[in-house]
Design a protein that fits this description.
The complex is a heterodimer of chains A (about 110) and B (about 110).
Chain A: E1 5-7, E2 10-13, E3 19-24, E4 31-37, E5 44-50, E6 53-57, E7 64-68, E8 74-78, E9 87-94, E10 104-105, E11 109-113
Chain B: E1 3-6, E2 11-14, E3 19-21, E4 23-26, E5 32-38, E6 45-50, E7 56-59, E8 62-65, E9 75-77, E10 86-93, E11 101-102, E12 106-111
Parallel strand pairs in B: 2-12
Antiparallel strand pairs in B: 1-4, 3-9, 5-6, 5-10, 7-8, 8-9, 10-11, 10-12
Chain lengths: ~110, ~110
């Protein structure tokens, strides 16, 4: 079991609202990546943060944004929620310069948009 | 572009049966290949990996061989247990990249 935690576990929002999801990092890790896992699909890379700046982004619109804090915890913010944003959101933390497969994943936040 | 195609599930097997979950990929160059497992309520865990052609990754009785000629990385286990019930994801990573491309996942249920 890893030290990566995410909150909240579940969340229900309505279309057009904004949501903030949180991730706390494994001790010693300084990067955080966010993935979206729609029902029945594999995780898709949203972006990675390192040194409090975005360090790579997948094919997601600007209404998906993030923050990384000095203690390496992170937030994922999604504005103007759409029904298709309903998914499990995973964060993964790692060490800069190390391969992506050395990252530890959190258990995820399940977001439902009504 | 990069893509991973996995055998569709769900897969239901009896305990001690042989398991194969097929995975093929499309990628430029020489990606690294992985299998991840997702148990209920837990985060994705790396199960095994292979970083170059003909490498065999293995862990907990599971194994997969990187076959460049068939662009495949099929997961196998000789004798599954009830505790292996989970969702399995095949994934690839391009050299120098900081992110993973995942397949759609295959749910395995093992019944006693």
């Amino acid at each position: 079991e890893t030290g990566v935690t995410q909150s909240p576990t579940h969340l229900i929002k309505t279309r057009g609202q904004q949501v903030t999801l949180r991730c706390s990092s494994q001790s010693g890790h300084n990067t955080v990546s966010w993935y979206q896992q729609a029902l029945g699909q594999g995780p898709q890379f949203i972006f990675q943060y390192y040194r409090e700046e975005e360090n790579g982004r997948g094919n997601f619109p600007p209404r998906f944004s993030g923050l990384q804090f000095p203690n390496y915890s992170s937030e994922l913010n999604v504005n103007a929620l759409e029904l298709d944003d309903s998914a499990l959101y995973l964060c993964a933390t790692g060490v800069a310069g190390m391969r992506a497969d050395t990252q530890y994943f959190g258990p995820g936040t399940r977001l439902t948009v009504l | 572009g990069n893509s991973v195609t996995q055998m569709e599930g769900p897969v239901t097997l009896s305990e001690e049966a042989f398991l194969t979950i097929n995975c093929t990929y499309t990628a430029t160059g020489y990606p690294s290949l992985f299998w991840y497992v997702q148990y209920p309520g837990e985060g994705l865990q790396l199960l095994l990996k292979a970083t170059k052609a003909d490498d065999k990754g293995s862990n907990k009785g599971f194994e997969a061989t990187y076959r460049k000629e068939t662009t495949s990385f099929h997961l196998e286990k000789g004798s599954v247990q009830v505790s292996d019930s989970a969702v399995y994801f095949c994934a690839l990573m391009q050299t120098g990249a900081n992110n993973l491309f995942f397949g759609t996942g295959t749910r395995l249920t093992v019944i006693p």
